[in-house]
Amino acid sequence: MGTLFASKWLLERDVLRTTQAIIPIKWKNSVNRKSKNSAQRFHQYPTKHIIHKAIEWQGMLDEGLAESLNDIAKVENLSRARVKQIMDLLKLPAEVKEFLIGLQNPAEIRRYSERRLRNNQTTKVMLKEINNQKV
Asked: Would you say 72 and 83 are in contact if contact means Cβ atoms under 8 Å apart?
């Protein structure tokens, strides 16, 4: 049980206790974590692959709307390293990029996440899968 001590106040779950009175607190935005809908409220499933964001950022750089990855990082409220990781998706082979751009199913989008694509072995497997689908 987590408690927080601050001078005369003791905060415990849903009750704020003082040395003289017990005052119930109603928390804003409290969610019953056991509810089935809580995951749906807080987790948004992707509708487009993150490569679309990399293409958009590359366009901003090409048009001069952003001078560097640092500018993009500030606007997007991300670290420069994270922006670089996403931009590295543009270094993938053309076939893989086309495949990722065409993804629409959220499950498939999560299957080919940016983190998974950092692994060169995954890219090789993807190329095999794409070539098998073409045949």
From this structure: yes
